[in-house]
Amino acid sequence: MIPAGLRGMEATWGRWSGANYFFEDLLESLTDDGLTMPNFVLDVDIEVNGFLEYCTWKFSQGNMYRLKSRIQIDGDCTYVSGGKIVCPLTMEGLMVRYKSVVLTPRTLNGSLRNLLGLTEKKSTADLFVNKGLATLTVSQEQDGKRKLACRVYILEMTMRPPSETLVSADVDMAFMQETTKRCERLLRRELEESFASFLMDHMEEKLPKVFQRVILLETK
Description:
The chain is α+β, with helices and mostly antiparallel strands.
């Protein structure tokens, strides 16, 4: 049985084709094109004169951006049992950027000082999503409130190489691999939590305006 809060939407959208217009308009009308990402720290192991050392990278001022142009409806929205509207999403090209600082290891020796040259070096970490699939689900709760959820199924990222050598070729490669893995996990979490909450708030604010557009499109 379709919940009362969704019944009117079904009548307007027919077989849910209008839901595509609804969510496309919703994504295009986002007031912010980016969201903040959490800070994090990485330790990358290196070997110096037979001893295991490590470099510490600190990441801050992180942002995901290009939400409006890169998170898009990919296919037809459908109605599923339990009173839910489900829309497939694609997010190729979504960007993440961090300010990073590489610090000298806590255990210091002369060889390592010569290798690093500086006690710290600043850089920018730029990553983009090269493969990303998710679903956007809107449901009606028993208390009448709407609920929006985003679930990410596939998320693969690529990191742009630093503009200059930060430590050494091997260490920088390990740094890129570890940074990419960590950012994939963080971005997945932020999309499913922060982005979903942000989009839900925006949907509640824009629902009347967007709904009117859907009615016009469906009655043409």
